[in-house]
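Take our chain:
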Amino acid sequence: MASYDGFYGTTWSGSGYWFTQPDQVEVWDSGIQPTVTLIDGSAAPQVSHSLFFPSHLEEMDKYPVFLDGNHSLVTIQNPNAEGGNLLVIRDSYAHCFSTFLASDYQNIYLVDLRYYRDNLSQFVAEHPVDRVLYLYGVDNLVSDTNSAWLK
């Protein structure tokens, strides 16, 4: 585990709590080297072999160190895992948590409904999943109209 000082969180800059002490970002690296594919609409997919993007640790917002921040679709492939396929319907709250799942599932599909514009039912038909995890922060859960069909 590595710890990095100076984390204020994404909403800190607009909060007005300028005297708040920063937190630390902890990166728990399991040592696996999955194939991580980041997809945003029609842009060319970006492929990495790490769940972590340490260049973000030099920025004001360090949270994108996990899975490079917000993307409409992220796939994590770990052929050495024993579990099957997991669909995570999520917001950014799931970024750090998903890194812990990577050692247990062969394929993880992280869909952020705030940005994902394709047909999710068609995606699941093309990428069968064994389990679904709905992982949202409470703020987005109660206000995100993109997930209204799930409520």
Q: What stands out?
A: The mean pLDDT is 87. The longest helix spans residues 95-101. The chain has three helices and eight strands.
